[in-house]
Specification:
The protein is an alpha+beta fold. The protein contains 9 helices and 18 strands.
Amino acid sequence: MPVLRLLIASVFLVASALSALAQSPYGGRAPNYYILDVGSGQVLAQQNAEIPLPPASMSKLMTLAMLFDAIDEGRVSLTSTWNISQHAHEMGGSSMFLETRDRPTTEDLIRGLVIVSGNDAAVAIAEGLGGTEPAFAQMAQQRAEQIGMTQTTIANASGWPDPRHRMSLHDLAVLARYIITAHPQLYQYLHETQFTWNGITQPNRLPLLSAGVGVDGLKTGHTEEAGYSMVGSAVQGSRRIIFVFSGLNSPAERAEEAERIVSWAFRQFVEREVLPQGHAIAEAEVWMGAAPSVPLVAAQDLNVLVPVMAHADIAAHVEYDGPLAAPVTAGQEIATLVVEVPGMDPRRLPLVAGADVAEGGFMPRIRTAAAVLGERLGLGQP
């Protein structure tokens, strides 16, 4: 793969302004964390994020995703009613207090799942979608793999302790992003602050929903092994972040950590333009084309988040599989701009062809063939 390494002063017009900036690593209390900027796809910070851990009630988000899929596909509606089995009724732990005589609607079960973290609601949904909870777990495992959760094994619908039931923080962030982006209309239920069922009103257990810092949903969890945990999302201005952490000792520590992460993620990074739309950054070689190369341009404005405390320059290079075979069509994605910000994962941005390059006629083909023959016979220029 050809790599074009760039002196990017002409591209990063903000380079001089950034030369005094450096990565400020997240220094919170949680031993395990993953912080993602949704719009850019950049991972702002992570630690132990690839280790499968007991997800506890955070895994109810998988049950929620399965239900949201069923709603959007028309298999159930918000007004559909659900049977409550003895197994669902007898579930321990957090509960929405379902009785076997109850016939809750889908909307009731959504609220019972995400607001009060009802284990009974999770089992009712699982049995209604899969027939049995073990059959539902198999369905959920398959769906998790389809949406990119590669460090997940699902044994039940509620997150009830089971040695086979594991999710990494990375996978929980993938799941949260899927719910938010694939089901934006249904995501509104996760904003609600309380829910009443059978005369019992319970508050949403998610910290900061009413704190005015932009947190708008997802789930908490707790097990003895994983500690107090949370999957959260927050919006400020045009930016949304998703964050996951585990390993804390109390609900108070969990709330403090969530606020610390939100403050850090929005205050410690600024968005900078890397490449304006239509700007050519390099040329890619074309094989047997009417032109020997094609400009590589941005199809849209390309931006990256950079930390506001850096001491090293940004670097970048272009990668493409080449030489490219003619014909090449303007707008065709043919290369990647890899931006390297100190202390962060590389950011990969698409580049497209800036012009059409038709197949070459007789003379370009002769020249190409002659060049190839010369290379093979060692007849290149001295």
